[in-house]
TrEMBL record:
GO terms for molecular function: adenine deaminase activity; zinc ion binding. This is Adenine deaminase. InterPro entries: A_deaminase_dom, ADE, Ado/ade_deaminase, Metal_Hydrolase. The lineage of its organism: Bacteria, Bacillati, Actinomycetota, Actinomycetes, Kitasatosporales. Binds 1 zinc ion per subunit. Its EC number is 3.5.4.2. Catalyzes the hydrolytic deamination of adenine to hypoxanthine. Plays an important role in the purine salvage pathway and in nitrogen catabolism. The active site is at E192 (proton donor). Keywords: Hydrolase, Metal-binding, Nucleotide metabolism, Zinc. It catalyses: adenine + H2O + H(+) = hypoxanthine + NH4(+).
Length: 333
């Protein structure tokens, strides 16, 4: 069994595997502009974040009913469990669905039906994080949070994703203030393609507790010092960074340098159906490409639970951390 871990940066729509996409397309009478799953996989060659997002939003057309969202989450949880995931904090993009006429309640209740039985079926505890699309307007983000109010019992926090450059965090000050008033936790993608200044802005203007990606903080040494001192978690996604050309190769990924700088980093899969692997595959990939030691892998697993939003269940966090300490790498596989 792989090392126990939490996954903290995972877009549920990014777990849509080609086989499920075609099955849902057939069920819902949606025509995809690809002949078959092989032709679709051929399209998974990305030049940057936007070229990925174009396909990611296009394929969402197959998700129409609550059952579709339940099936999508079930498929992710099953794969995640097999890769050692014990806790998952799952992003979803409501505006990508409401824009197609799918009510937000269908999305949340569909995902919720899967998450309600995740512990019993897959041994995974879960949280749901509602993300705003940063290339949509601030008003649209506010309307989305308003529409989510009947479902807040299912939502732990808010996030910010989609095309980063040109959409700085400060654009969403008001909706993050409202989210804080509602008692929601706050995270944001920053420093993936955008500059280190966006990471600072996410902390200072949006009050986020974790940064998703955050890679480009490395261009600003005083920001690195601050992130390390304040123990702000960074949810890294190594396979994603290679596929979206944020880094050239896995061997050049700054993960190790970031750990050495004292940063609280975690390893995650982002959009595993598109980027060549789930979170355990990302762990194996960086272990091999960067020559990580067992101690470093254990540190990454420990970090994932420390960075998780388990403050409402510290007993569970302690149990997971004990599992990490008891794990024997030499007995694996
Ligand atoms: N890596 C990523 N960056 C920004 N938005 C996303 N939405 C899904 N994956 C994303
Ligand atoms: Zn992401």
């Amino acid at each position: 069994m792989p090392v126990p871990k939490a996954e903290l940066h995972l877009h549920i729509e990014g777990t849509l595997e080609p086989e499920l996409a075609f099955a849902l397309a057939a069920r819902n009478g949606v025509t995809l502009p690809y002949a078959d799953t092989d032709a679709l996989r051929e399209a998974y060659r990305f030049s940057d974040l936007q070229s990925f997002l174009d396909l990611y939003y296009e394929l969402m057309a197959v998700l129409r009913t609550a059952e579709d969202f339940t099936e999508l989450a079930d498929a992710y949880l099953e794969r995640a469990a097999a890769q050692g995931v014990r806790h998952a904090e799952i992003f979803f993009d409501p505006q990508a669905h409401t824009a197609r006429g799918i009510p937000i309640g269908v999305v949340i209740e569909g995902l919720g039906a899967s998450l309600d039985r995740a512990e019993e079926r897959y041994g995974i505890s879960t949280r749901l994080i509602l993300c705003f699309l940063r290339d949509e307007s601030a008003e649209s983000a506010l309307a989305t949070l308003e529409a989510a109010k009947p479902y807040l019992h299912r939502i732990t926090g808010v996030g910010l994703d989609s095309a980063e450059v040109g959409h700085p965090p400060a654009k969403f000050r008001e909706v993050y203030e409202e989210a804080a008033r509602l008692g929601l936790r706050r995270v944001a993608h920053a420093g993936e393609e955008g500059p280190a200044a966006y990471v600072r802005e996410a902390l200072d203007v949006l009050g986020v507790e974790r940064i998703d990606h955050g890679l480009r903080c490395m261009e600003d040494p005083s920001l690195v010092d601050r992130l390390a001192r304040e123990r702000v978690p960074l949810t890294l996604c190594p396979f994603s960074n290679v596929r979206l050309r944020v880094v050239d190769t896995l061997a050049e990924h700054p993960l190790r340098t970031m750990m050495s700088a004292g940063l609280l980093v975690t390893v995650n899969s982002d959009d595993p159906a598109y980027f060549g692997g789930y979170v355990g595959d990302n762990f194996d990939g960086v272990r091999d490409a960067l020559g990580l030691t067992e101690d470093q892998l254990r540190e990454l697993a420990r970090n994932s639970f420390e960075a998780s939003f388990l403050e409402d269940d510290e007993a569970r966090r302690a149990r997971y951390l004990a599992e990490v300490e008891a794990y024997r790498f030499d007995a694996a596989e």
